Model the fold of this input.
Amino acid sequence: MNSRTRKMITAAIMIALGVLLPQIFHLIGGPNLGSILLPMHIPVLLTGFIAGPLYGLLAGFLTPALSSLLTGMPPISPVPILFLMMFELPVYGLISGYLFEKKRMNMFLSLITAMLFGRLTYGLGIIVLSNIFMMNIPNGITVWGAVVSGLPGIILQIVLIPLIVQILEKRGSLNEGYRKS
Done:
């Protein structure tokens, strides 16, 4: 199987996981557990690491869109979380894949950088949407709130994603020629 096909299949599987995982989390812990543990973010970040920046970007855009279409989550109203995530998650996939694959940055630094830029994008999206819809939300609180509310999920990602990527590297499951040191 060629590299492009492998990357497409990986992205498709990760998108499916990105739709399925939040539903499992909602069943186990109610609707708020997903917004606390951020399960949709994990497959998108992994797509960047495993399949590269382009597929990470696509998975980040398609996962919340398909999930919203199929399950109603993330919601479009009363707060348009879907649109925030359709900007945030592609940043995760793009930056994790770009820094890890193209710049050969350390996995942990790639992950932290992607998470920072993704959360900043989310926070900036809140500011933009609050101005468009004329919601009275203090700008500094929104960016900070985007980080603090997702802190348990951020910790889960910092623990889980490097572990999964290391296992895949040891098994030789990452794409050929990808991350050869």
